Amino acid sequence: MSEIYKEPLIDLAGGRIRCRRCQAMSKRSRLQCKKPALNGKRVCQIHGGKSCGPKTPQGKQRIADAKTVHGRDSRAEREQASANSSYMRELEDVAWVLKMMTGTRTRGRKPKDYQPIRTPEDARLWCLLNANGLRGKVKF
Question: What are the helix (H) ranges across 5-119?
Answer without folding.
Answer: 57-65, 75-97
